[in-house]
Amino acid sequence: MLYTLKSYLKFLLTSTNEHGVHSPFVFALLTKCIYKKENIDKKLKTLLTHQHPKEKQGIRSKKKQLILYKIASYFKSSEIFVLGKSKNTKELISLARPNSCVTVAEDFEMQFCEKEFDLVVIDTTNGIYNTVAFFEKILKNAHKNCVFIFEGIYTTSAQTRAWQDIISSTEVSVSIDGFNLGLVFLKKGQEKQHFTLRL
C-alpha cells in the first residue's frame, strides 16, 4: 500500500494530459476515446455499478471499466483475450462490441494458438501471473495493431518492474502509463514513444 501511494505521488508530478502530447495517434486516442464523454445507457450503467461478489480485484472501478469499454469500442476490437476470472470484464467488452469473440482464461492454452487477438486485457493485481512471460507468450498471437491493457502496474514493485520490462520490448511501439492502467500498442512502423498520462 505504501509503495502504491509513493508511486502515485510521483505519477502526479510527472503525468500530463492531452496538452502535453505531440503524437497524433495518442492525441486522437485521448480526445476521441478516453476523454470523450460517453452516453451511458441503462445496460452500461448497470455494469459500471454492479460488482460480482467474488471479484475483489481487477478492472472494477467505474473509471477503469469505462476506459476499457471505450477502448474496445474505439478500436473496433473483434478477437479479445482477458487473463483472469472477471465475468464483469467480459460482459463489459461484449456490450461495447456485441459481435466480438471474448475469451476469458487463467492462462494462455494451446487451443487459443490459432486465434489472432486485437485486444488483450491482463489483470496483474493478484500477483499470481508472470506478466512478462505471459506477454511474450501471447505476442505470437497478437495482431500487428493489438492493444494490451495491463491493470495493476503499481500494485507492487515487482509488477512495476514487469511493466518497465514490457514497455522496453522491441515489439512495443507506443506505451501509456495511466497509473491504474498501462496501455501498450504494437503499431508496426511507428516511432517508439512512452507517455505518462492522467487517464
Question: How would you characterize the largest beta sheet?
Answer: 7 strands, mixed
Strand order of the largest sheet: 2-1-3-4-6-5-7
Helices and strands, in N-to-C order?
Answer: HHHHEHEEHEHEEE
Q: Could you tell me the CATH topology label.
A: Rossmann fold
Under the CATH scheme, which class? Alpha Beta
The total domain count is 1
Global outline: globular
What's the CATH H-level homologous superfamily?
Vaccinia Virus protein VP39
| Average pLDDT reading | 85
Model regions low in confidence, pLDDT < 50 over at least 5 residues: 53-59
Helix content estimate: 25-40%
Structural class: alpha/beta
- The gyration radius over C-alpha positions equals 16 Å
The CATH architecture term is: 3-Layer(aba) Sandwich
What report would you give on this structure?
Helices cover 37% and strands 20% of the residues. A seven-stranded mixed β-sheet has the order 2-1-3-4-6-5-7, with helices on one face. It is globular, with a radius of gyration of 16 Å. The protein is built from seven helices and seven strands, in the order H-H-H-H-E-H-E-E-H-E-H-E-E-E. It has 199 residues and is an alpha/beta fold. The chain has one domain: Rossmann fold (3-Layer(aba) Sandwich).
